[in-house]
Amino acid sequence: MEISAEKTKLMTNNTSGINTKIKVNGQKLETVTSFKYLGSVITDEGSKPEILSRIAQATAALIRLKPVWTDKSISLSSKIRLMRSLVTPIFLYACESWTLTAELQRRIQAMEMRCPQDTTHLIQRPCYQRVS
């Protein structure tokens, strides 16, 4: 296997940065604060930007599917299957790499509660309301 110094970047979660110069084939690696990996944004400030982006994308999907959620001819079980197959994957994509804080965990739980409520109309607020 050969490593390309031009394509290889370096990122750390150490707040003081990296003191050592890391080189590949005699070339110093570029230090970055964020990068995209398989469609997921990885940053040195943790998972907050990625999680907030996923919440926004899942909320947008919920809004686009509002005609389905309000259609009384579609059974609740079908709506739940649609939720699990169309919205949940958007929300949980790359979640195995998330680093959670208490605040992010609350936001995730709020989103998890909002999805079934919007589907079954147990609440009367719009699904795009901001979560604090």
Helix content: 40-55%
Shape: elongated
Please state the structural category: alpha+beta
Strand line-up across the major sheet: 1-4
Describe the structure.
It is built from 4 helices and 6 strands; from the N terminus they run E-E-E-E-E-E-H-H-H-H. With 132 residues, it is of the alpha+beta class. Helix 1 runs parallel beside helix 4 (102-120) and helix 3 (76-92) packs antiparallel against helix 4 (102-120). It is elongated, with a radius of gyration of 20 Å. The model is unreliable at 122-132 (pLDDT under 50).
SSE layout:
Layout: E1 9-10, E2 23-24, E3 27-28, E4 30-31, E5 34-37, E6 40-43, H1 48-64, H2 66-70, H3 76-92, H4 102-120
Parallel strand pairs: 1-4
Antiparallel strand pairs: 2-3, 5-6
Helix pairs in contact: 1-3, 1-4, 3-4
Question: Summary?
Answer:
44% of the residues lie in helices and 12% in strands. It is α+β, with helices and mostly antiparallel strands and 132 residues long. Helix 1 (48-64) packs parallel to helix 4 (102-120) and helix 3 runs antiparallel to helix 4.
